[in-house]
Specification:
homodimer; Uridine Diphospho-n-acetylenolpyruvylglucosamine Reductase, domain 2; 38% helix; 20% strand
């Protein structure tokens, strides 16, 4: 069963061994887990729902609580400390566009706002219910999850947009296809959510971002349905898909989406390469990203992340042997790990991988074989469970991510980590910060930074610590010339920084679009831009 | 010098030999050229300008005439027959964003509409001056053409958006880079025009469409400047670039644009392959487009285009030898020519080309070597001069283009050609129609159709013939499920069909955006959507 106050399935654990705990204690001090409230207590804390009954709406406290929040750290704090101040007044589970329209009419009749809910994996406050004011109807899309059509000739598949990653891939795999979109949240996040937040998957190097995969679909808006037909390309005015991508529920609900699919790859392999230091590693990945080799993944950890990951992984003895072997080859304290993936037809993927490893070697890289890469592949959706394990030992884990042109990548990474390190000094607390480049482009890269710090045991203190940390690193991102999000979206949490890149005129343009589709400001109010 | 009433440089001619003329006479009847009016007579026909003097504005009849129209067939008819009913009241040539803002203020002060002018190559009526009503100021961007910055690390180059194709490539080539954007209009069209109309170049298979090349820039809008920063990717809400792409001058003028550039290719080669018939050729190009080979161009002519091109090319004896050689190999009457291009690093381009030719062979293709491909490369911007030559013999040439998912490609091509063939029956005239697939995608292809028909010598008759033909083929396009334009844009000429793909709600969304940036409806009114 899915955890109600943490990540993922309750059956999946990820333990931190003594060595890992000692490492964390050295970095930020010994942790002490706060006492989580029970599900029942959290339910009991909810104010009663304010919507009249409707056959499609579940107004039970249990269901309302399970759809009240996402996976951001403040969301976790609210759940763990039992401080869920706001929840939807009801949650609906439509099975058709007609039911969605029916629910819009119900919301309109009762002056309710509407929050679209996909997999509940937002880490930016997309699902937060506004305080006070009108009632809120959350529309959960999980029952609209069937593959509705598959066109093998055009390689297009149409899905109910509430389909989750595993369900989508399973339905495609049965026919020999894949979408190839694997965000970290893959287990729960949905196609509709990916589109609404401009998601990016771990193998975007091969398959592209969701922007490129989303070919068309149907959006139910308060002003009526918007059907976006599929074309391979078009110069016919503004691209309507681009109004939906990143709209974060502000203009309606994507109910059906057609995506561009690929044949399942013949072969797929992930290899690890270590570099003696960051600069050599960066030069290598830039050359790889600009070299046009048909790779499927590049993921470069900086030195702190490399050593943190090797330590937290367990397998102390194996890691010690690996590090000794690497040290002999010049990769010591500042070493950085690169994962290189290639997927596709044998005749293309193998030469590409060979060429990539050769290029890495010419930049001082030491090929460590397939073991670590395959381990990454097996655990690719498991590392996020680390948040649960860390919490159980009294540590909070949070992340931010951005993307920047190449000259800004390293300065931004350093500035983000420095801002994090300084953020909690007022409380006498340290932050352990590390980063990787998760998506590489000819133009630049995304920087994905992780922060570990201690929980205080007090909701107010921990929320204030998060706020201070979030402000510091977000300021650092925009000052370094980065976008406030490369793959998580804006929601509530990133909205204060959005004006940096959009300007007032650009924010206004987004608002003008939303007003057109949703003149009453009913849809996910307050997210992205002021309502 | 540039022709004022036709395509291109006066020094460049393209003759039709006797064999070609006999072919055209067989297809649509013998032609008789109408009498073109002189430049002076056309100037004398303009009504006086209605704007007061401004230091940046040239209100001479000569300059106003030269900026009154684009290159669509109705534009040609107006120029050739001396029926330029409307022209801008003045033409400005700003050299900075400040001057553009100054011109906006001037236009506002005098209630004038503003038409942005790039290279004047629109074939969809983007530049048409509205009839009557307020005065019109055309802002010609040709003086803002410098490379303003080059970032070799991020492979970004910033240009004044009025830069033409050759000027842009020359400035990049000096540093070893290319944009790789080569639309047929390359000689004159501009970066700003490409962005505003969502242009696609002949080698988009390698370099992508302008949507992917345009990384950011600055738009002067009536509500102030919109600066769009560059990121490799972002999930921060709606992408502002996508509001500019395809906006066709309706929200402001792109004054500076940053584009993603590539290293000049080490090698580049174009080869020709002939197929015995359309179905085999189509299967081959679909497999090529979906195979992910790093090719730079695929261009497949149908049987009528193949024979037309071979006939119009001159070189009768060489063509006869080629056809005899092809006939021995099974490519006879219905044969279709495919051009395959590969560009890039030697180590990637050569194997890709080899693999492509192998795949084509397995689909029944006959490799005809590099000669025809190289000839295409040398003449790639020359074939459009054929319009001048045809006119001189009494023939009009017009084109339409669309893009469709694979299952719709062949039916659409047939429907477009059938609609063209039937269009002028009321006048007892025939239309010679032929097509090629100009851009190939895993999802589908663009269909580019050319029509040749006789001129009548009467402006009204020829305009009516064009109207009838345009209506027929445009209806065929949208009924077949195609977009009304893959690369030419919408302008005035395609606007009646835009609702088919956007719906009323989508059209309204575009209009809402334009109103936000341009509340007075000053910018290029009437283009794309009703003002």
């Amino acid at each position: 069963m899915r955890r109600w106050n943490g990540w993922g399935d309750e059956a999946v654990g990820m333990a931190l061994d003594d060595n890992a705990l000692a490492f964390l204690a050295r970095q930020v001090g010994a942790g002490r887990a706060p006492q989580d409230v029970s599900f029942e207590a959290a339910c009991a804390g909810l104010a009663p729902g304010r919507l009249p009954p409707h056959p499609l709406v579940d107004a039970s406290a249990r269901t309302r609580l399970l759809h009240a929040l996402g996976q951001s750290l403040p969301d976790w704090l609210r759940l763990r400390y039992g401080r869920v101040d706001t929840a939807p007044d009801g949650v609906a589970f439509p099975e058709s566009g007609e039911q969605v329209r029916d629910l819009f009419a119900f919301a309109a009749a009762h002056g309710a706002a509407v929050i679209p809910y996909g997999g509940g994996t937002s880490v930016a406050g997309h699902l937060t219910v506004p305080n006070g004011g009108r009632p809120v109807l959350t529309i959960a899309m999980g029952r609209m999850r069937a593959m509705l059509a598959l066109d093998p000739e055009a390689r297009l598949a149409r899905f109910g947009a509430g389909v989750s990653g595993p369900d989508l891939e399973a339905q495609l795999r049965a026919h020999g296809y894949t979408l190839g979109h694997f965000p970290q949240s893959f287990e729960y996040s949905t196609l509709g959510g990916w589109v609404a937040t401009r998601s990016s998957g771990q193998q975007s190097l091969r398959y592209g971002r969701i922007e490129g995969l989303f070919a068309g679909g149907r959006v139910e808006t308060p002003q009526g349905p918007l059907e976006i037909p599929t074309f391979p390309a078009s110069s016919a005015g503004i691209d309507l898909r681009e109004m939906v991508l990143g709209s974060e529920g502000r203009l309606g609900i994507l109910t059906e989406a057609t995506v561009r699919v690929s044949r399942l790859p013949e072969v797929e392999a992930f290899h690890a390469v270590f570099f003696p230091g960051w600069d050599a590693a960066l030069a290598a990945v830039r050359a790889l990203a600009q070299g046009g080799l048909p790779l499927s993944m590049l993921r470069l950890s900086n030195a702190v992340e490399t050593s943190t990951m090797l330590t937290l992984a367990g397998h102390t003895r194996a890691v010690r042997l690996l590090e000794a072997w690497l040290a002999l080859r010049g990769c010591r304290d500042g070493k950085c790990m690169l994962l290189v993936g290639a997927s596709g037809a044998r005749a293309q993927a193998r030469p590409a991988l060979r060429a990539a490893l050769g290029l890495a070697r010419r930049h001082g890289g030491v090929h460590a074989g397939r073991g670590l890469g395959e381990r990454w592949r097996r655990k690719r959706f498991r590392s996020v469970y680390l948040r649960n394990a860390a919490w159980a030992h009294g540590y909070a884990i949070d992340t931010v991510e951005t993307a920047l042109d190449w000259p800004r990548v390293t300065p931004a990474m350093r500035a983000i980590e420095a801002a994090a390190a300084a953020a909690l000094q007022g409380w006498g607390e340290r932050v352990h910060a590390y980063s990787h480049l998760s998506h590489l482009y000819p133009q630049g890269a995304s920087v994905y930074s992780t922060f570990v710090f201690r929980l205080s045991g007090s909701f107010e203190t921990d929320l204030a610590r998060w706020r201070r940390l979030k402000d510091g690193v977000s300021d650092a991102i925009v000052q370094a010339g980065g976008t406030i999000s490369h793959q998580h979206g804006v929601g509530l949490d990133h909205a204060p920084w959005l004006g940096h890149e959009k300007g007032a005129l650009g924010l206004g343009a987004m608002a003008a679009l939303f007003r057109h589709f949703d003149p009453d400001g009913r849809m996910n109010p307050g997210k992205l831009v002021a309502p």
